């Protein structure tokens, strides 16, 4: 069975997940984190991709982006992977692959699910037990969104700006969003969508369906029902 292309809908954000091969570390110290951030900023600029949120964990990375074309997100990840893997291998005297095959991605409905995806990303270090408060983790976009430290990598999405009329209002609303945490059902939906590549959000609209490069959800299981002529 042929593999479906990664889902793309013009103008809609994408959640990207990339893991280390065999769950091995891809960041071992501050130098690795800093270098990845440098390559991420350069690759996003060259690919024309807007980065709205991110977290770099020891064995994986999450990115929330909006890409201007179907090929742009792949272009970003190709540039980023090629540069960082070469740098990482040279620095750590190793060779071979670093990442676990293809990166995974899904389209995120640009409504409440976008903020849910951003929260999911930035609470990752808390769920993993690295910090008690997400603002204490240095390798994510959380401090930017809370107004603690501007991050040149981030292009704020319009929905973040919609949280308030002033920076203080937006930061307070985002803090409340983080403090409320991600409900288990929300986590399940995010993980399933990212792993399977189906659209994350409510029932797809006809306009989204028409603009997508492939179907947005899996086909119903089982054989299609036959139409039975009336007696």
From TrEMBL:
Residues 203-231 are annotated as: Disordered. Residues 222-231 have a biased composition (Basic residues). It comes from the Bacteria. InterPro entries: Transposase_17, Transposase_17_sf. Residues 9-124 form the Transposase IS200-like domain. This is Transposase.
């Amino acid at each position: 069975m042929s593999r479906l292309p990664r889902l793309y809908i013009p103008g809609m954000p994408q959640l990207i997940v990339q893991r280390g091969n065999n769950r091995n570390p891809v960041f071992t110290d501050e130098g690795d984190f800093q270098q990845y951030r440098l390559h991420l900023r350069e690759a996003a600029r060259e690919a024309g991709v807007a980065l709205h949120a991110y977290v770099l964990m020891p064995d994986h990375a999450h990115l929330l982006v909006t890409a201007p074309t179907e090929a742009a997100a792949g272009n970003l990840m190709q540039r980023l992977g090629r540069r960082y893997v070469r740098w990482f291998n040279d620095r750590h005297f190793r060779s071979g692959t670093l990442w676990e095959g293809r990166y995974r991605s899904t389209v995120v409905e640009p409504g409440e699910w976008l903020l849910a995806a951003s929260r999911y990303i930035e609470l990752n270090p808390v769920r993993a037990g690295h910090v008690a408060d997400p603002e204490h983790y240095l390798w994510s976009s959380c401090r930017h969104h809370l107004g603690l430290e501007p991050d040149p990598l981030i292009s704020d999405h319009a929905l973040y700006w919609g949280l308030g009329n002033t920076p203080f209002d937006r930061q307070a609303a985002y803090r409340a969003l983080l403090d409320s945490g991600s409900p288990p059902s929300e986590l399940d939906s995010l993980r399933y969508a990212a792993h399977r590549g189906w659209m994350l959000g409510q029932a797809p609209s006809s306009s989204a369906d028409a603009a997508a490069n492939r179907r947005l959800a899996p086909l119903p299981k089982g054989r299609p029902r036959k139409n039975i002529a009336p007696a």
